[in-house]
Amino acid sequence: MAPSPPCARALCPVLKPLVRIAAYMFPLDTSTGSSSTTGSFGSLIFLLIVMVPLLLMVFGQRRRAKAAQAMNRALVLGDDVMTTSGLYGRIVVLDDVTAVLEVSPGVRLKFARAALAGKAAPGLATNPGSTPHGDLG
């Protein structure tokens, strides 16, 4: 038997409860093998209304997580970045788990690599008086 693809294994926890609900809503008559009359078209519509948004949320979250991982792997020394808390800095030390950011000359802060939200606009991390929206003061 061929191994199931990774996407099928990942969806297993999501689909198992939905299959159980469908089996309950549309039971099979074991004597004839046909569908019982207790299930209705309205039940099918209800099931679809529940399943479609759930699957869209799962796939959307997975796509965002993969994009964040790809961005995090693409970071290199010297990149200007923004953390998830909104702090801007330049990467001066980078390893698999942590990153050290220089937020102003001589001030270095250590962050978990997962806390880096993405690359910042060039030069934003090195100009302490600048903001992404211009001068606010």
Topology:
Elements: H1 6-25, H2 41-73, E1 80-83, E2 88-94, E3 98-104, E4 107-112, E5 116-119
Helix pairs in contact: 1-2
What do these coordinates show?
With 137 residues, the protein is α+β, with helices and mostly antiparallel strands. It is 39% helix and 20% strand. It is built from 2 helices and 5 strands. The protein has helices spanning 6-25, 41-73, and strands spanning 80-83, 88-94, 98-104, 107-112, 116-119. Strands 4-3-2-1-5 form a 5-stranded antiparallel beta sheet. Helix 1 runs antiparallel to helix 2 (41-73). The longest helix is centred in the middle third of the chain and has 33 residues, at 41-73.
Give a short summary of the structure:
The protein is an alpha+beta fold.
Tell me the fraction of residues in β-strands, as a range.
15-25%
How much helical structure, as a percent, in the residues? 25-40%
The H/E string reads: HHEEEEE
How many E-type strands? 5
Widest beta sheet: strand line-up = 4-3-2-1-5
Q: pLDDT below 50 for ≥5 consecutive residues: which ranges?
A: none
CA(first)-CA(last) distance: 67 Å
Q: Give the helix/strand class.
A: alpha+beta
Shape: rod-shaped
Radius of gyration: 25 Å
Biggest beta sheet attributes: 5 strands, antiparallel
